[in-house]
Design goal:
Blueprint (H helix, E strand, L loop, with lengths): L1 H26 L16 H15 L2 E20 L1 E18 L7 H11 L4 E9 H10 L2 H6 L5 E4 L16 H27 L6 H23 L9 H8 L5 H6 L4 H11 L1 H6 L8 H34 L11
Helix pairs in contact: 6-7, 6-12, 7-8, 7-12
């Protein structure tokens, strides 16, 4: 009798379980949303799908746009006893993440969470904004968003609220160029001033203070370049983050600061962690030679930035002022 009762209860509970499971699937279908975009290719598509699923599970995502991507593939062949072949893919990309509500994490914190979630296969540099702010900027006019919001860059959109703004064209006029030029002069002037201070400070007094000045000079230079090339003013100003954004439109930051040699990696670490080291503690001793090397790299960085930015400003000036030329009418 006991076995019969047990079997009846088991059958009823099993039926209830599967019924509830089916109802839950109907209410909450699979989180995987087919992603679109001309810039997506396998296996990057699989990696970005995993990132998108994670973002949608954690935040109220409105849309995602791909700004840039990189793939790093490692092909290994091991010939010990039996031949084993393996290929590992690592990716990095820059995304514009538009959410319905503000995200409580800064771009670096969100990048770390995504990096760990994807088992260190995907490093994403986020530009984060909310849909109300995006719509306000678009209605006022925003050249940065006009460059990014392209149909070919769209990975995900929850609705068609941004559809009418896609594939817009940046607008140029003299007042905007004058403002861009003024901001650049201010930023690069501040960067050169900080670098000059680093040069005159007694190195033996405090090497860390010297590195902090150099770090801030690099930060000012990167912010100034982003204002010119993207017409974008970042709210998050970590040096590694800014350098990565600048690598989207020029190669010299990578060539100067991101070499693969041990010396270059150590120097990059010192420059990007100088503020942290002076606020708390530095785990190792910094030599005067390393500080001089940091000064030399920063000076080279600023010089290259001035050269390419002045060329970009000349191009923007031409685009901004050519509309003031009188129309040429053909005479018959």
């Amino acid at each position: 009798m006991g076995e019969v009762v047990f079997q009846m209860v088991h059958n009823i509970s099993t039926g209830i379980f599967f019924t509830c499971q089916n109802l839950e699937k109907q209410r909450n279908p699979s989180r995987k949303i087919p992603i679109s975009g001309e810039n997506l290719q396998f296996p990057f598509e699989l990696a970005i799908q995993e990132v998108l699923d994670f973002l949608r599970s954690e935040f109220k995502v409105h849309s995602v746009f791909l700004i840039s991507k990189e793939q790093h593939s490692i092909f290994e062949v091991k010939n010990f006893q039996t031949t084993k072949k393996s290929q590992n893919h690592r990716f990095s990309c820059t995304l514009l993440l538009v959410t319905k509500k503000p995200v409580s994490l800064n771009p670096a914190e969100l990048m770390d969470r995504v990096f760990n979630h994807t088992e260190k296969r995907m490093k994403v540099y986020f530009i984060i904004d909310t849909i109300p702010k995006i719509l306000d900027k678009l209605n006022r006019g925003n050249n940065f968003l006009d460059r990014v919001l392209r149909k070919r860059n769209s990975i995900f959109q929850a609705d068609h609220e941004l559809y009418k703004f896609l594939d817009g064209e940046p607008t140029y006029y003299p007042q905007s160029w004058q403002q861009i030029n003024k901001r650049w002069k201010s930023r690069i002037g501040r960067a050169n001033y900080l670098l000059d201070l680093a040069y005159v400070i007694d190195l033996e007094e405090d090497l860390l203070a010297n590195l902090v000045l150099i770090q801030n000079a690099l930060v000012q230079t990167c912010i100034g370049m982003l204002n010119v090339f993207w017409e974008y003013q970042p709210s998050y100003t970590s040096l590694p983050y800014l350098i990565k954004l600048c690598c989207n439109f020029c190669d010299f930051p990578r060539n100067i600061l991101l070499n693969t040699s041990f010396e270059s990696q150590r120097m990059y670490y010192l420059l990007t962690h100088a503020q942290q080291h002076i606020n708390y503690t530095c785990p190792f001793k910094i030599s005067e030679k390393e500080t001089e090397k940091a000064y030399s790299l920063c000076n080279q960085f600023i010089t290259e930035a001035e050269n390419i930015t002045e060329r970009e400003l000349a191009y923007l000036k031409m685009k901004s002022f050519q509309r003031n030329k009188p129309f040429q009418y053909k005479t018959t």
